[in-house]
Design brief:
There is one protein chain. By secondary structure, this protein is α+β, with helices and mostly antiparallel strands. It is built from two helices and four strands, in the order ββαββα. Helices cover 28% and strands 36% of the residues. Helix 1 (33-43) packs antiparallel against helix 2.
C-alpha cells in the first residue's frame, strides 16, 4: 500500500475570535504529532484554549485556539511561531 504524502501547512486567523488566534495545522498523521505541536507552542509561550483534532486517513487537521498572555498573537509573533511549528511537521 502506497502512503499518501500530505504537504504540511500552518495558517493563522485573528478575525474569527475576539480573544484568541486560531491556528490550523495540516500534516501527515504520525505518532507524537500532537505532542510535538503542543510542546512547541508551550516553548513559544502560547496557551492552547481550545483544540479540535481531526484525522482522516493519513491527514491530521488540528485547529487550535491559542493566545499569548491572554491576548491574540500579533503579526510579528505569528511570523516566528509559524516556522517553528512547521519544523515539527
Amino acid at each position: 500500500m502506497q502512503r499518501l504524502k500530505v504537504e504540511p501547512s500552518v495558517q493563522t486567523d485573528n478575525e474569527c475570535s475576539q480573544h484568541s488566534t486560531l491556528i490550523e495545522i495540516i500534516a501527515q498523521d504520525r505518532p507524537g504529532l500532537l505532542y510535538d505541536i503542543s510542546s512547541t507552542m508551550a516553548e513559544l509561550g502560547c496557551n492552547i484554549e481550545v483544540a479540535m483534532i481531526d484525522t482522516q486517513g493519513q491527514t491530521a487537521t488540528d485547529c487550535l485556539s491559542r493566545n499569548l498572555c491572554r491576548r491574540k498573537l500579533d503579526r510579528s509573533t505569528r511570523r516566528w511561531c509559524e516556522p517553528a511549528l512547521l519544523e515539527q511537521l
